[in-house]
Write a structure and sequence with these properties.
CATH class of the largest domain: Alpha Beta
Number of helices: 10
CATH architecture of the largest domain: 3-Layer(aba) Sandwich
Bound molecules: nicotinamide-adenine-dinucleotide
Helix content: 25-40%
Order of helices and strands: EHEHEHEHHHEHEEEHEEHEH
CATH superfamily of the largest domain: NAD(P)-binding Rossmann-like Domain
Strand order of the largest sheet: 1-11-10-9-5-6-7-8
Largest sheet: 8 strands, mixed
Number of strands: 11
Shape: globular
Distance between the termini: 60 Å
Length: about 300
């Protein structure tokens, strides 16, 4: 019989988060200022900044884009860390590429790092440390795009709320096609920390991420399986291949699969909904909502600890 999968839109997933953000900003009557630093000439960064600006205006966040010479960025970030009028900092990468961009990511204070890309948050994420403090009052910031995908999976009820927190993906097999340092790798670690078995596929190889119950965090192992082997085993397939030509054949997928595309190109074939139980074709609106949610968290941390 013909099955037609549910189409899940990013606008639907982000709606309740946006309402909550608006409500909170209204109730607390505080200024919330996010500054974006643009130090490259990347048109997609400009586009992302425009989308962010519009969305911030709608929820009541003051967003300012500052164009800056890349050689001045380091000193500018250090000054922004100290500036009480700036509550969140974001930087559009790549700038220099490679190691120097990583160095710059680490120049942003953890109390202003809305993207969650500084070393403190990355380390805590990979080690499944969920708070900055022992009293659990300052939850760690999770990178926006992986966090958006987690919220979409929660909305789709791939997370089993009957299971204990931290193990709600137990029993799920998930393939992630992309292992970039900003999306694919952190996402694999986060979903494995929540109990899933992950096949992380990139252009060169496959890795398996899964939770080690004794360590209470994920471990990673080499894996001989190829994409064609793991797709029929996967309850969820998440793809982020930045290429127009790249297509996952619907035929290779498990019936009733949950499919999420985060690439700017459509990685699934047009007939994906014939096979999938649920399909989300683009996640951008949820990513922006998570950026804003991270910002409000940090705003609250700054008020709790004004000397940070
Ligand atoms: P990237 O270039 O850093 O990483 C691409 C990844 O895809 C790499 O791991 C690479 O090995 C893998 N890959 C490439 N070709 C492959 C193939 N044929 N088979 C398997 N794996 C392959 O890119 P990125 O920063 O991770 O971004 C990826 C895409 O996601 C882009 O289209 C970007 O615009 C989009 N993106 C969307 C959001 C959002 O919130 N909507 C956020 C970040 C990135």
């Amino acid at each position: 019989s013909e099955q037609v999968g549910r189409i899940i839109s990013a606008a639907d997933v982000s709606a309740s988060f946006r309402d909550a953000l608006k409500e909170k900003i209204n109730r607390k009557q505080y200024d919330v200022k996010l500054v974006g630093y643009l130090a490259n000439n990347d048109p997609s960064a400009e586009k992302y900044a425009e989308v962010t600006a519009r969305s911030c205006r709608e929820v009541g966040i003051n967003f300012e884009l500052r164009r800056i010479n890349r050689e001045h960025l380091e000193d500018t970030l250090l000054a922004a860390n100290e500036d009480d009028d700036i509550h969140g900092i974001m930087v559009y990468y790549p700038i220099f590429g490679g190691g120097h961009d990583q160095y710059l990511q680490n120049c942003v204070s953890p109390y202003k790092d809305v993207e969650g890309l500084c070393h403190t948050y990355r380390f805590n994420m990979y080690h499944n440390i969920r708070s900055l403090d022992k009293a659990n009052t300052l939850k760690c910031i999770i990178p926006c795009t992986p966090l958006a995908i987690i919220k979409i999976l929660e909305y789709m009820e791939v997370y089993d709320r009957e299971k204990p927190y931290g193990n709600q993906l137990f029993g799920r097999t998930i393939t992630i096609i992309n292992r970039s340092e900003v999306v694919g790798r952190p996402l694999a670690a986060l979903l494995a920390n929540d109990g899933a078995k992950i096949y992380s596929v990139d252009v060169k190889d496959t890795l398996e991420f899964k939770k080690d119950i004794n360590k209470q965090k994920h471990v990673v192992a080499d894996c001989d399986l190829k994409l064609a082997d793991v797709l029929p085993l996967s309850d969820v397939v998440i793809s982020g291949v930045p290429s127009k030509e790249y297509k996952i054949s619907t035929e290779s997928l498990k019936p009733g699969v949950v499919a999420i595309n985060f690439s700017s190109f459509k990685n699934f074939e047009d007939n994906i909904a014939d096979k999938a139980a649920m399909y989300c074709s683009a996640i951008g609106k949820v990513t922006v909502a998570m950026l804003q949610r991270n910002l409000l968290r940090l705003r609250e941390y700054q008020m709790k600890n004004p000397y940070l």
